[in-house]
Every structure is written in structure tokens, then in C-alpha cells.
TrEMBL record, chains A, B:
Superkingdom, taxonomy of origin: Bacteria
Lineage: Bacteria, Pseudomonadati, Pseudomonadota, Alphaproteobacteria, Hyphomonadales
EC number(s) on file: 2.5.1.17
SUPFAM superfamilies: P-loop containing nucleoside triphosphate hydrolases (SSF52540)
Gene Ontology MF, one: ATP binding
Function: Required for both de novo synthesis of the corrin ring for the assimilation of exogenous corrinoids. Participates in the adenosylation of a variety of incomplete and complete corrinoids.
Keyword entries, A-Z: ATP-binding, Cobalamin biosynthesis, Cytoplasm, Nucleotide-binding, Porphyrin biosynthesis, Transferase
Protein name per its UniProtKB record: Corrinoid adenosyltransferase
InterPro entries hit by this protein: CblAdoTrfase_CobA (IPR003724), P-loop_NTPase (IPR027417)
Amino acid sequence: MTDDTSHTEKMKALQEEQRKKTDAASVPDRGLVLVHTGNGKGKSSSAFGVIARALGWGQKVGVVQFIKGKWITGERQFFSKFPDQLDWHTMGEGFTWDTQDKARDIAAAEAAFARAKDMMASGKYDLVVLDEINIAMRYDYLTVDAVLDGLKARSGQTSVILTGRDAKPALCDYADLVSEMVEIKHPFKAGLKAKRGVDF
Amino acid sequence: MTDDTSHTEKMKALQEEQRKKTDAASVPDRGLVLVHTGNGKGKSSSAFGVIARALGWGQKVGVVQFIKGKWITGERQFFSKFPDQLDWHTMGEGFTWDTQDKARDIAAAEAAFARAKDMMASGKYDLVVLDEINIAMRYDYLTVDAVLDGLKARSGQTSVILTGRDAKPALCDYADLVSEMVEIKHPFKAGLKAKRGVDF
């Protein structure tokens, strides 16, 4: 009897422990905010990998690119094959980061973020990717407060990934996940050129 | 005359400098070896992002997954839509990392790597992704020497991405690029469960 009681108690304790774990892992299913930052490679490409994942589950995805708008990239060509599941928006034509017209660049960044905000608030998207938006904040084309306001106003089911180096501390504080990509070795430094299909 | 000579000389120096830069950026176009390691998120998903890129350029891609073989993942569902461009191979059914039969697991890892080696040497692929292979090396299911031999025997035009935490130093020495994904904040630690479309 004592053995049985002891066993039962042990099992109960185990069950309790298990229940706590399960509870901890069952916090309401809401959209996450993920930041990919750091000086290494993989910030945007891992966001594109997550897009592939989301599309694989039949989810709806929105992308706003705050830079690289004029590049022909492999990801752009590839993902344009899925217009039903994916809305892809790049910043206005005139925006190159090479322009000397800061007011115009700020207007372009703000217009792109207005689009992003609509996407995030609409409830239509499982995932919204704001590619290189950290760069727009870094150069004061967007304020971190404006971006935080947009994130806070998003639909509860929408996850958002924000990429780009030099992510603002206030954004990292707000995010559920911050991943830093650290450059250990880089082929460009070894004299290799950017490679089609790998780097863009 | 003196001014003209001086200008010409300056232009020549500038041209020379430019030529050197261009040369440095034009090292023979060969396949790169990239390692994604670290304890943070984004190692596999950035490889999947690069796959999307490569597919966008009409390139041919091979994937060998050394783990997660039994999961239903978004990436697997998504990329299975492109059988003409993408060959996807997961390790033998019996392989779960939970088995206690180490000899069987080693045999499964070796069989998967044999497949990877064929892919890399065939010259048919622009990109080969060896997903979570670093874990196989970490647990001595594969030796780093065997993996290096396979990489060295690859077709010159084939880029290879090797993912997984705890990448072996000898592999990092050989690689053209090593990116470390560092976990700054992680949602699981905050009690959130893995999210379909984001985490798998």
C-alpha cells in the first residue's frame, strides 16, 4: 500500500509538472514579432525561408521591401509565382538610397510603411515581412515610434518579421524574438563577387 | 600642359585603383561553401530563403535533410511543388534521433551523406543544402573529415550550404562564409509554443 501511494504521488507530481509545461507552451496563439538583425548574412534570406514555410501551410503573406526595390532578385522572381497567397510591395521607383533628396526618400519610406501598416492591421495576413525596415529607421527615414505604433495596431493573428542591421533597441525590447546574424567569414572580403542565386 | 599631364596621371591612378577593385570582385565564378551555425533561429530558414532565390533564377537545387525527416513542415510542403528544379531527400524513415540504436542511426546518416556526395559531385546542381548536417557531426554520426572530402570532391559550380548548431572548426576553416545566428530573445523561453508557418 505504501508503495502504491508513493507511486501514485510520484505520478501525480510528474503529471502536475507536465501540465505546467504544457500550459507554459500553450499561451494564446497569437502572431509573433521577430527581428533579424546583425552584420552577418541571412537576415532577409531567413525571412524568405519563413515565407516559404508559411506558403507551404497555405497561409497568406505580405512583403514590403524598404530597399533593393530596383534589383532583380531571385526571391522576387520566385515569389511572384504565388500572387494568390503573396502580396509583394517594393518601395517607390525613385527610392534608391543614393538620392540626395532626403525629403523625397522620407516620403517614399513613409508611403511604404503606410502600406505595411494597412497589411498588418487588415487581419488578412498570417505573416508580414518588412524587409530592411531597420535600415530605414537607422537613417531616420522612419521613427521607431511610428513602427512600434504600427506593430501594436496589428491584427492579433499576424506575425511580423522585421529585417536589417542595427535594429533599434526599443524595437528589440518589443519583439518576441531577436536573432542576430553574426558575420564570421564573408566571401566578399575574400575577393569573391556576389553570386546569383546565393546572394540575391 | 603640366595640368593636363597631372590630370592624366590622376585619372590613370584612379583607373588602376578601379581595375584592382574590379579584379578583386571578379575572382573565378565558383560555387561557395556556406555554413549557418549558432544557437539562434534562422539557420535552416535562411537556407530555405536561398533555395527560393536559386529557384527564382531557374537554378537546380538539391536538399538533404539530416534531421526532422518525419516532420510535416511548411518548407517541405512548399518546395515539393517544384520537382523539376528541386530534389529533396530526407534521411531514412527510422531515423529520429530518439532511437537508442546508434549503429542504425550512423548507417542512416552515412546513407544520407552518400546521397549528398553524389549530388555535390554530379555537376547537376547549382546549390546543395545539407540541412542539420552539423548535428550529425556533433553526435559523431558523420566525421568532419568525411564531410570535407565530400565538399572537396564537389563540382566547381555547385554551392553548398551546411546548417546546424555547433559547426566543427575544421568545416568553418574550409568554408567561404560562416554565419552565426545568435539567439537574443526567443519566444519559447517566453512560454510561447512553436508556430506553424513561422517555426516549421
